Amino acid sequence: MSPSPVLPDERLAADAARLATAHRGRFCAETVQRVITDSYERLAATARVTTHLVVLGERLAAERLDALAHIEGAPGSGLPRVLFVCSHNSGRSQLAAALLAHRAQGHVTVSSAGTHPAAAVEPAVAQVLTETGVLSAETAFPKPLTDAVVQAADIVITMGCGDACPIVVGRRYLDWPVADPEGAPIAVVRTIRDAIDAHITGLLDSLPSTA
Questions:
Q1: pLDDT tens-place string over residues 94-119
Q2: Residue 151 to residue 68: CA distance in whole angstroms
Q3: Cα–Cα distance between 168 and 177 in angstroms, integer?
Q4: For the residues of 129-158, what is the DSSP string, one character each?
Q5: Is the Cβ–Cβ distance between 193 and 186 less than 8 Å?
Q6: 160 pLDDT band (50/70/90 cuts)?
Q7: What pLDDT score was predicted for residue 210?
Q8: What CA dihedral angle connects 5, 165, 87 and 150, to 10 degrees?
Q9: CA distance 61 to 53
């Protein structure tokens, strides 16, 4: 048996134990430790501020383990799963994920990721979501695209950014051609938010289980 990985921050030990307990019977403690270590290191590679890395690493690991559990057919994982992907996971995909999660009211499992994740969500994006009561700036962070989250998704939506996702047979793929909010004036970002929200309306209409 290969040894357990050395955690890059000793504070992750409590998070690893908590996740191992949550996934008892699905994943061994060593698997959980490897996922949380890898999640932390991926985020640390692009982080400008490391204050919240432990918390964010645990959140990313939890999402990845949930995706793996879904792939393996774990009980209780039957909600429709939608994944939004853009280059940096700091603008369009964050807007779309937050809006869908807000409007679906727990009837859809929503995630987002970036092929080249940025260090932080665009400030204007966080602002326009806060304005609508959807999201505070502290609750969103760019996440790396992994094979597991693509495989776990029922619907994969790219945001008109030219990024290619791994193709998994049986998944529904969509591309929403919306403008990039990076560096745009706040009024333009609000327009982009509203355009994405219109796409969300159409998506929800196509998912009977969210009614």
A1: 999 999 999 998 899 999 999 889 98
A2: 8
A3: 22
A4: HHHTTS--TTS----B--HHHHHH-SEEEE
A5: no
A6: confident
A7: 47
A8: -50
A9: 12
Buried b (16+ CB within 10 A) or exposed e, 115-131: bebbebbbebbbebbee
Residue 58, helix vs strand vs coil: helix
Q: Which two tokens stand for residue 126?
A: 């966080």
DSSP 42: H
In the predicted model, what is the mean pLDDT of residues 51-72?
Answer: 87
- What's the chain's Rg over C-alpha atoms? 17
**Model confidence over 200-211: pLDDT tens digits?**
999 999 886 544
Structure-block tokens of residue 52: 């919240």
Residue 73: both structure tokens together:
């057919």
Q: Which residue has the tokens 């793929």?
A: 173
Cβ atoms of 68 and 40 within 8 Å: the answer is no
Query: What stretches of the chain show up as alpha helix (H) in DSSP?
Result: 12-22, 29-44, 53-71, 92-104, 123-131, 147-152, 186-205
Alpha-carbon distance 152 to 138, whole Å?
Answer: 26
- Are the C-beta atoms of residues 53 and 127 closer than 8 Å to each other? no
- What do you get for the CA distance between the two ends of the chain, in Å? 47
- Kindly report which listed range (8-12, 62-66, 92-96, 182-186) carries the lowest average pLDDT score: 8-12
Residue 75 identity (one-letter amino acid):
P
Place of tokens 């050395």: 6
For residue 181, which of 172, 190, 173 has the smallest C-alpha distance?
190
